Amino acid sequence: MLTKVFAHRGSKGTHPENTLPAFEEAVLADADGIELDVHVSKDGHLMVIHDETIDRTTTGTGRVMDLTKKEIQSFNAGSWFSEEYDETIVPTLEEVTYFLKQLNFKGILNIEIKTDKIHYPEIETRIHEWMISDIWPFSFMYSSFNVGTLVILEKIAPEVPNALITFADQEMIDYGLLTRNITGIHPKITWLEEHPEQVSTFSKALRPWTVNKKDQMLFCFKYGVSGIMTDYPRTAVALRNEWQK
User: Which residues are known to be catalytic?
Assistant: First the structure.
């Protein structure tokens, strides 16, 4: 089975994460999938950013939930990475999906719902309502560390693939394997390296994170896992193509 390459937060290793330049690079790199993270702003907008605060990846400070979309987008979200991106902002999910539609991205959009620390009211419903409001050239799936979010998704979006994200936690992985509504498991790459005997017989879609080293990528290609989350999609795609030959 061909292992799909998912661009983690766009192309986090080469561009400012979770921004339009990063997502464009993922498309240009021929990534099979793109992973992004969603929080909710004070005024209810679905903001694409990894952390609960804007401190690490913008020139501003504060929690996403305490700031409006306008306030969040008034700060620079790219200059921390390079001066080349000093006009980059934190996008909304709406802006990202329209952007990917313009680019005719035909892969898989993996939407991580960030409810592991703050469970934003109705976030699952609002994301799903948006995703089914239009016809996209790409398919999409949902993922989360929060089991409660996956339970909600089973009720409101049973037709959409989902995945439980976890660290190298055997108990959580076993839970995911035994739970009917969970269709995939996204463990930390170290779990695969420590348990190669389980990989070849894994009964659900297995997509580890964050697979950045070439030996880790080759390990995943060899065992034919469903996909990998990587900060370097261009490198991973090229290595996979070379390995297949």
Answer: 8, 50
